[in-house]
């Protein structure tokens, strides 16, 4: 099996939780994909980085990140997966709101102004979180070249409607789930 298949197995074995839940979008579902069980797992996290780099290999960007908390381990995995290659890649964290102390930055990490960046998320249903990150990145002077997620729960249309390319490593059908 390759990285993509191995990651799918980790997701289906560890992250898919069955039972009634209310998603951050307010939508009720009979199952939840808790990707932090995968993105923060010692064996799965390296796969996340490699799969996401492979998914976006033809896109030109030099920094990756998104709205904290879902995007943070995805961006860190990509940063670490890129390190042994000839592709320099920085990561950043977009806060939900600016800090009222210190440097009062909304985006933490290397400066994104004037840089081509990729917005990521672990999973997205409506696209609201990743689009909030995109807005903050643009306000900071970054050029957002696209959005990539590990699992798409339906956000693709909203992201594309906002004028951004969108890719997902897995769809719900890939995981044997029904929307």
From TrEMBL:
Subunit relationships: Homodimer.
Protein name: Orotate phosphoribosyltransferase
Catalytic activity: orotidine 5'-phosphate + diphosphate = orotate + 5-phospho-alpha-D-ribose 1-diphosphate
Keywords: Glycosyltransferase, Magnesium, Pyrimidine biosynthesis, Transferase
Biological function: Catalyzes the transfer of a ribosyl phosphate group from 5-phosphoribose 1-diphosphate to orotate, leading to the formation of orotidine monophosphate (OMP).
Pathway named in the protein's UniProt entry: Pyrimidine metabolism; UMP biosynthesis via de novo pathway; UMP from orotate: step 1/2
Family assignment from sequence similarity: Belongs to the purine/pyrimidine phosphoribosyltransferase family. PyrE subfamily.
The enzyme's E.C. designation: 2.4.2.10
PANTHER family recorded: OROTATE PHOSPHORIBOSYLTRANSFERASE (PTHR19278), URIDINE 5'-MONOPHOSPHATE SYNTHASE (PTHR19278:SF9)
GO BP terms: 'de novo' UMP biosynthetic process; pyrimidine nucleobase biosynthetic process
The keyword Cytoplasm belongs to this UniProt entry's keyword annotation: no
Cofactor: Mg(2+)
Species the sequence originates in: Micromonospora musae
Family matches, as Gene3D superfamilies: 3.40.50.2020
UniProt-recorded Gene Ontology molecular function terms: magnesium ion binding; orotate phosphoribosyltransferase activity
